[in-house]
Amino acid sequence: MSKKYTILGIESSCDDTGVSIISTDGNSFKILFEKTASQIDIHKQYGGVIPEVAGRLHCEAIAPLLEEALSSVANIDAIAVTAMPGLITGLHVGVEAAKTLSYTKDIPLVGVHHIEGHIMSPLLNKGAAIDAVSFPLLALVVSGGHTQLVHVHEFGSYSVIGDTRDDAAGECFDKVGKLMGFIYPGGPKVSKAAIGHEDNIPLPRPMMHHDSLDFSFSGLKTAARYYLRDNPNADVGDVSASLEAAIVETLAYKTKKAAMQIGAKTVFVVGGVSANSALRESLATSLETQHIALIAPELAHCTDNAAMIACAATRRVMHGSFDSVSELTASPVGMLPQ
């Protein structure tokens, strides 16, 4: 029987304070504890995440969550914490909490790249296992802060082959949603408003046919802004449907192009925007013609969560590759492991 590892995960890179404990044999994953303290009700008053406010709220939430987690599961083999990238105010809280716990309880520590956590998130699905994933693998990471195409050579080794040159897709959703009067976060409300409406407003598909695999959504955001300015009585549902169609079509086209370039057998779509049903449907239809499997996380694990961070630390835990308490630091930027 394979050795089982119990890993505690901590996530605090933006506006969610997450703590989770998973059990794994290195192939499949079982969640033993999971809880997230959301800050949305606070930040929606400001129309977006305020880093200083987020940091203070992480400070308030982290200790009670850790206490509850540790009282429910004994014998932790390792602590995994998001160390990069993200809002430095939140990252500091999570990293310092993890280092303190590691030092006082003599538990090994692993710093995790936030995007690697998202890439691993579909492995938390019921019945999922690493040995069931067919390579080559492409990951579309799409959220409020990131829009990337990542060639996953193997779990733990990544190459970013497409990136946003300005705004992320989720940021475009949120900011145009704000222009239409939706309370933060606007993205899910845009998608809801789009139901039953048509893509009948000529919004651009930026860089869709560009030679590179990069994205750009600032021009789309600006075009939507000018349309709303010039058409003050525009139907919000039609604008929402047209915006969603422009984003989804661009993401699906570029993803299929990237998948064919690397000969992908599987595509993971991950991150907060991966919860968008129109995106999932468009990707599935597009990739099916090339016999490429599409896998997305369960909805609960599309947004930031600590279980994915614990999952991403598994390989290093199994190999005994840990970080020093004195040397691990939080960073707002950082490259994925090569």
Would you summarize the structure shown here?
The protein has helices at residues 40-43, 51-72, 88-105, 114-120, 169-179, 186-194, 218-230, 236-262, 277-288, 306-312, 314-318; strands at residues 5-11, 16-24, 29-38, 78-84, 109-113, 137-142, 147-154, 157-163, 266-270, 293-295. The strands form two sheets. The protein has a five-stranded mixed beta sheet, sandwiched between helices. A five-stranded mixed beta sheet has the order 8-7-6-9-10. Helix content is 40%, strand content 20%.
What is the topological layout?
Blueprint: E1 5-11, E2 16-24, E3 29-38, H1 40-43, H2 51-72, E4 78-84, H3 88-105, E5 109-113, H4 114-120, E6 137-142, E7 147-154, E8 157-163, H5 169-179, H6 186-194, H7 218-230, H8 236-262, E9 266-270, H9 277-288, E10 293-295, H10 306-312, H11 314-318
Parallel strand pairs: 1-4, 4-5, 6-9, 9-10
Antiparallel strand pairs: 1-2, 2-3, 6-7, 7-8
Helix pairs in contact: 2-3, 4-10, 5-6, 5-7, 5-8, 6-8, 8-9
Query: What is the gyration radius calculated from CA atoms?
Result: 20 Å
The CATH superfamily label of the largest domain reads ATPase, nucleotide binding domain
Alpha carbon gap, first and last residue: 31 Å
> Helix and strand string, N-terminal first?
EEEHHEHEHEEEHHHHEHEHH
The helix-and-strand class reads alpha/beta
What is the CATH topology of the largest domain?
Answer: Nucleotidyltransferase, domain 5
Strand order of the largest sheet: 3-2-1-4-5
Can you count the helices?
A: 11
> How many strands in all?
10
